[in-house]
Structure to design on (332 residues):
C-alpha cells in the first residue's frame, strides 16, 4: 500500500522515517505478517515491554492494508512520546536521530538475549590482536550477538574495524564495533561531490594528537597515533547518513553540498578491510529509500522518496501528499 501520513505538528521527520521503513520490504513483512510477535521479549529491561514494536507493527499493517490514502499516526506517536518526550513536542527533530531511536527501540523489544556462556569467545587482548582480522571480526560479531540478536541486527547492522597505532612504538590496537549507520562526512563545503569522496574521507587515515592523542598501553602515555577505519562487515540493508549538520561549539551549520550517488550498484569493495577486498562476493547496493531535508537548521522540512517493490515506481512522500516521481529526482 501507499499512504500519506498526516503531519501532527512538525512530525515530517517521523513521517519520512516511517515511509522508508515501510518501504524496507523484508522488515515491513516481518511486521505485517505478525511474525514479530513470536520475538517480543517483554522482560528485556532495555526494551519497552513490546510497546514500541507493537505500535509500529500496527501502523505498518494499516499502511500495507491500503484501505486509506492518508493515515494519522497518532497512536504510534503517543507510544514514542511516552519513551522520549522531546519527539512529542512541536519542534522539528532530526530524522536520523529518530531513525536510530526507533530501530533501537524495535530491536530491544525483540532482542533475544542468549545467557549461555561462550567460553570459545573468551581470550585476552594480546591473543585477540594476533588473530587474522577476518577471524577477529567474526569473534567480535559473535560476542555482540550474544547480547544483541534481532532482525534489526541481522539485517541492518554492519561492523567497522578501527585500527590504532602508536607513532612512537608502533603498538597496535584493533577493535571491531557494530554500526547501524555509515555516518559519512561531506568533504566539500559547497558545490557537489560524489558519495565515493565521502567514503574515502571516512576511511582515510587520521592522526590523533594533542588532546585526542591515544593513550598507548605499551608506552603507558598519550602518544601521537594514527587511526584508520575500514568496513569489516556489510549488512543486507545499509543505511547511509550524510553528516550535513555540523556542530562547532554553540554553532550549527548545514552543508548544502550536493552529494552524487548511483541509484543502482553502489560499490563498497574499496572501503572494506583489505583481507575482504579480494573476496569474490562483490557487495553492491541499490537505493530504494532516501530521506531529504530542505531548508535551514531551525525548522526546515523532511520528505522521503521510496521505490515501491510492486511496480518499481519511485514515490515522493511529503507528509500526507504522495506523488510518483522520477528516479533522477531522488537527490540527497
Ligand atoms: Zn607506544
Amino acid at each position: 500500500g501507499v499512504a500519506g501520513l498526516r503531519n501532527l505538528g512538525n512530525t515530517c521527520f517521523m513521517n519520512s522515517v516511517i515511509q522508508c521503513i515501510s518501504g524496507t520490504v523484508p522488515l515491513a513483512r516481518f511486521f505485517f505478517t505478525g511474525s514479530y510477535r513470536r520475538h517480543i521479549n517483554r522482560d528485556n529491561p532495555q526494551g519497552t515491554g513490546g510497546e514500541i514494536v507493537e505500535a509500529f507493527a500496527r501502523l505498518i499493517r494499516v499502511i500495507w492494508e491500503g484501505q486509506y490514502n492518508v493515515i494519522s499516526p497518532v497512536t504510534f506517536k503517543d507510544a514514542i512520546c511516552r519513551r522520549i518526550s522531546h519527539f512529542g513536542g512541536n519542534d522539528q527533530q532530526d530524522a536520523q536521530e529518530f531513525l536510530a531511536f526507533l530501530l533501537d527501540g524495535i530491536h530491544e523489544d525483540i532482542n533475544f538475549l542468549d545467557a549461555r556462556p561462550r567460553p570459545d569467545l573468551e581470550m585476552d587482548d594480546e591473543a585477540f590482536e594476533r588473530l587474522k582480522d577476518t577471524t577477529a571480526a567474526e569473534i567480535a560479531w559473535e560476542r555482540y550477538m550474544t547480547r544483541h540478536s534481532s532482525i534489526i541486527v541481522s539485517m541492518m547492522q554492519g561492523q567497522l574495524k578501527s585500527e590504532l597505532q602508536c607513532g612512537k612504538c608502533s603498538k597496535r590496537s584493533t577493535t571491531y564495533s557494530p554500526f547501524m549507520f555509515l555516518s559519512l562526512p561531506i568533504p566539500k563545503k559547497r558545490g557537489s561531490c560524489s558519495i565515493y569522496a565521502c567514503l574515502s574521507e571516512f576511511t582515510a587515515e587520521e592522526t590523533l594528537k594533542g588532546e585526542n592523542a591515544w593513550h598507548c598501553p605499551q608506552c603507558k602515555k598519550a602518544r601521537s597515533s594514527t587511526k584508520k577505519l575500514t568496513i569489516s562487515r556489510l549488512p543486507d540493508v545499509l543505511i547511509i547518513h550524510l553528516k550535513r549538520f555540523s556542530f562547532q561549539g554553540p554553532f550549527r551549520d548545514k552543508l548544502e553540498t550536493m552529494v552524487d550517488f548511483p541509484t543502482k550498484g553502489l560499490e563498497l569493495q574499496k572501503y572494506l578491510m583489505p583481507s575482504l577486498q579480494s573476496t569474490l562476493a562483490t557487495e553492491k547496493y541499490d537505493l530504494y529509500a532516501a530521506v531529504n531535508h530542505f531548508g535551514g537548521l531551525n525548522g526546515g522540512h523532511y520528505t522521503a522518496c521510496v521505490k515501491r517493490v510492486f511496480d518499481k515506481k519511485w514515490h515522493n512522500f511529503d507528509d500526507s501528499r504522495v506523488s510518483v516521481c522520477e528516479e533522477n529526482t531522488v537527490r540527497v
Observations:
- The radius of gyration is 21 Å.
- The pocket of zinc ion is lined by residues 166, 168-169, 171, 216, 218-219, 223 (CB under 6 Å).
